[in-house]
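Not sure how to ask, but would you mind making up any protein sequence you like and the tokens describing how it folds?
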Amino acid sequence: MTYYAGIDVSLEASSICVVEASGKVVREGKAASEPAELIAWFADLELDLERIGLEAGPLSQWLHAGLTAAGLRVELLETRHVRSAFKTMPVKTDRTDARGIAQLMRLGWFRPVWCKSLSSQEMRALLAARRLMKDKLRSIELSLRGLLRNFGLKLGEVSAKAYESRVRTLTEGHPVLAALAEAMLGARAALRLQFAVLHRQVLAAARASQRTKLLMTAPGVGAVVALDYASAIDDPSRFASSRRVGAYFGLTQRRYQSGETDRTGRISRLGDKRVRASLYEAAHVILTRVTKPSSLRAWGQAQTGRLGPRKTKVALARRLAVILHHMLVDNAPFDPARGGPAITA
């Protein structure tokens, strides 16, 4: 008899359901959301499980790694597919979700999600922390600027180094404003210090990675973009074709076809939005800042008149994503003449 299992993961406890090939529920229960507890729960069954389904989420990669190391056949499920399948359920509970996941595993109606390596997860955590620190720093600066503007005190264009002195000059003679400005400037100084620490770690990681150095040979691709892209791709061989990378990051157009209706819409915006934003920024740099000639830049400039600047940057970002994957697969630097990886002997 073939058996399938589904796990609905929550922060403290996970609901588990095991079904047989006919769809009949064999066993249901709960276990702590810890790899050891889940492994022990399945060991008590003494059943040969064909597949175990686990919806992608915050704890999923950690649990997937632990269960896989124990020899269990675990699949990470794409969240969109799981939600679409559960829309017909009149009652939604953790128990019914576990049942639904088990049935999806039995029917094979699921799309597996790649479980990234530990090094890629660590790099993505570092980049996320750096980005968060940068966003909070920017938020404090804009908030302080807005508070002062309410009193007619305009900062104007000011460099990062001259920001504090400019704020103190404007708030001089305003005791209340000076007090709140000092508090916000203190928070800004602490954020700038810690952001610098994280930024140095990012640069050190870029210097230590051969893959990152390879990607940085492409125009518009700096250390942050290269690390973002490489950590998201993780293993280039998991893509059968480089052309699929554009769709993976949500840079391909949606399409709806039914009968006589055939509509092509905007890009899907599926996948990792941080990498998608990084590729868009790289495309912007290629079109506006890069002066070194390359066929990639020439292609983007040729499309601008036909598509407009925004659509051109999206198209260039998709093209860049495909080229960067080619570079990783071929282990070759960017060739300005070819607009892709250099051909090696």
